[in-house]
Design goal:
The chain is α/β, with parallel strands linked by helices. The protein has 2 domains: 1-81 and 161-252, Rossmann fold; 91-158. The chain is 35% helix and 24% strand. The radius of gyration is 18 Å and the shape is globular.
């Protein structure tokens, strides 16, 4: 197994009196796809926000490519080598589709607009969107098209690690499966590592090589996707089965 491209060691994060992360340990290796599952409010989004430097952990260490990624220069270097598909897409409604896709190229990397548009149109083709879609506004897109645009934005710079935050939220099952297929295809084409947080077990089974279960601020189980249905973990079994009864209390 190659050395991890990302490693979280004993990450803690609290908000006031609420301790959300209580010692999260998590790794993902190059070329591997890890899905992080768990109930609502257990800290899945907080975990990846800490990994990206969008939040600062209260304790613990984050390593990227074997080097600490905790100060501002290291976090900026990490972000240049990663992509992110945000929950809901997080597209800019005042920009065209191609401008959304090429946003980092133009405003971070200072790529000229003509070249940025060319690369954006090429990347849109990878997610099955033609050149005419590039000049549309995001309000003119269906939910599935918005997800594909968000995926194109996440992959345009050839990242080595991609984060997916609930990538199929709000999609019907058929469209969700099509988006999952695109995610698998593009992650493999890049040879990138991927970390996905999701409640959608169909997505987990489609895109993940490995699964980690987050509960009460800690990883309570991790294993290959082939072991998901025979994990031996009451938490995993309850979550995968979708039962109200078990060690995980419903968030109501």
């Amino acid at each position: 197994m190659p050395a991890p491209i990302l490693e979280l060691r004993n990450i803690h994060k609290r908000f006031g009196a609420k301790e959300v992360l209580r010692g999260v340990d998590l790794t993902v290796a190059p070329g591997r796809s890890l899905a992080v599952i768990g109930g609502s409010g257990v800290g899945k989004s907080v975990t990846i926000k800490c990994a990206l430097g969008l939040m600062t952990p209260d304790a613990g260490e984050i390593l990227f490519d074997g080097k600490p990624a905790m100060d501002r220069p290291a976090i900026e270097a990490l972000r240049r080598r990663t992509g992110m598909l945000f929950q809901g897409g997080a597209l800019f409604d005042s920009l065209t589709v191609w401008e959304n896709v090429a946003f980092a190229l133009m405003y971070r990397d200072q790529v000229p607009r003509v070249e940025a548009k060319r690369r954006a149109i090429e990347t849109l083709a990878k997610v099955r969107l033609g050149p005419s879609a590039g000049d549309l506004l995001t309000a003119e897109l269906s939910g599935g098209m918005q997800k594909r645009v968000a995926l194109a934005r996440a992959i345009i710079a050839g990242p080595e690690l991609i984060f997916f935050d609930e990538p199929t939220t709000g999609l019907d099952p058929i469209t969700a499966d099509a988006v999952n297929n695109l995610i698998v295809e593009q992650v493999k084409a890049l040879g990138a590592a991927a970390i996905t947080i999701t409640h959608d077990m169909a997505s987990v089974r489609k895109i993940a090589d490995e699964v980690a279960m987050l509960h009460e601020g800690r990883i309570v189980w991790r294993g290959p996707i082939s072991a998901l249905d025979k994990s031996g973990s009451a938490h995993v079994d309850q979550f995968v089965s979708g039962r109200a009864e078990g060690p995980i209390q419903p968030a109501i």
